[in-house]
Amino acid sequence: MPEIENVTVENALFGKYELGKLLGCGAFAKVYHARNLRTGQSVAVKVINKKKISSTSLMSNIKREISIMSRLHNPHIVKLYEVLATKTKIYFVMEFIRGGELFAKIAKGRFSEDLARKYFQQLISAVGYCHSRGVFHRDLKPENLLLDENGNLKVSDFGLSAVTNQVRADGLLHTLCGTPAYVAPEILTKRGYDGAKVDVWSCGVILFVLTAGYLPFNDPNLMAMYKKIYKGDFRCPKWMSLDLKRLVSRLLDTNPDTRITIDEILKDPWFKKGGYKQIKFYDEETGVNKEEDNKKDYVNNLNAFDIISFSPGLDLSGLFDDSYNSNDDGERFVSGESPERIVERVDEFAKTEKLRVKNKKECGVELEGWNGNLIIVIEVYRLTEEMFVVEARRGGGDAECYKEMWKNKLRPVLMNQQGASVSGN
């Protein structure tokens, strides 16, 4: 495949995307406009050069960003369609937002309170949704808020995001991150912070910028600016309404324990003015309510790194998942059957072959036989709402016994049920 910088309309990325003009670039990535050759849909392709992210921490950030974006489906969050990769580059294929950054619009002058309220409501909808899924953005600012062709806001750039499993034993996050002018005071103390509360602070800075036209905390000297943030040293301009001033002061409360919460923001008089319909947290693509979706949490959810490693003829397991080796002792394939039905088929097979079901759960089963010389582990992961990945591996015992039972007997039974091999043999 040619280097992406030299791509012309005659060349297509992975035979699927026709790449166009460069939209922007950073230290580790470039973003291009592209067109899906099959559907004609415009997309944005973020290209990350693997050579520039050799450090473990940067790779971890990319892993986390993909994993987070793949689980977020909200009308005010940029969609991640798929992830592609080669040995040297990683490609995020995302929703193309035509209106550009909110930052470019606010640079032309402050907004009316009504317009600012519209954007702020959409921002809080997105942030509240993220928090409900255990995701904290940690770098909210106008540059990371995009506008679509209808003037609706979309949150982007989850590269610095955190998830609940990063919280330490003290219940707090400790990584220092964010953009100086938007960073919460508790991050500066280096004693740990609540991810949801620092996002609320950043939302407060954004609301101030939208309605004032300038930053609440600003100084050419970085340490002087940090002192202002730590002390909460700001003043609302005289043209702000009293209700807005009250809300801003609660958002920019330097004490995270008394700072306004998302639930309280939704009840605020200024926020609700003119009517506000709260968006139910559901998956747009599947139509599944969050409450209903929670009932399905027993099925393992694949993140995008797992999906990347499934690409036919492109073994990237070493890049994204050191724990999985694509060898004779393991195989993965896609199935349209539900996890329950797959486990049921394995159970039926075990009875026929007189194997003992050593362990069984909703998303997997472990078989043992031949006096302990054979152990087969089958696990099922969700790929989409209708597609699942079945992973089979040797859990112990003799390798030859495993190959004989898996390849010649169990594999044909499962593969004949609409399966397509994607990894392994």
Description:
The chain is α+β, with helices and mostly antiparallel strands. The protein has helices at residues 56-71, 102-106, 113-132, 185-188, 195-212, 222-231, 242-251, 262-266, 269-272, 290-294, 304-309, 317-320, 339-353, 399-415, and strands spanning 12-13, 17-25, 29-36, 42-49, 80-85, 89-95, 135-136, 145-147, 153-155, 162-163, 300-301, 330-335, 356-361, 364-369, 374-382, 388-397, 420-423. Strands 11, 12, 13, 14, 15, 16 and 17 form a 7-stranded mixed beta sheet that branches. Strands 1-2-3-4-6-5 form a 6-stranded antiparallel beta sheet. Strand 15 (374-382) and strand 16 form a beta hairpin. The longest helix has 20 residues, at 113-132. It is elongated, with a radius of gyration of 25 Å. Its cofactor is Mn(2+).
- Measured on Cα atoms, how large is the radius of gyration? 25 Å
Q: So what's the CATH class of the largest domain?
A: Mainly Alpha
Counting structural domains, the number is: 3
CATH superfamily of the largest domain, by name, is Transferase(Phosphotransferase) domain 1
* Distance, first to last CA: 25 Å
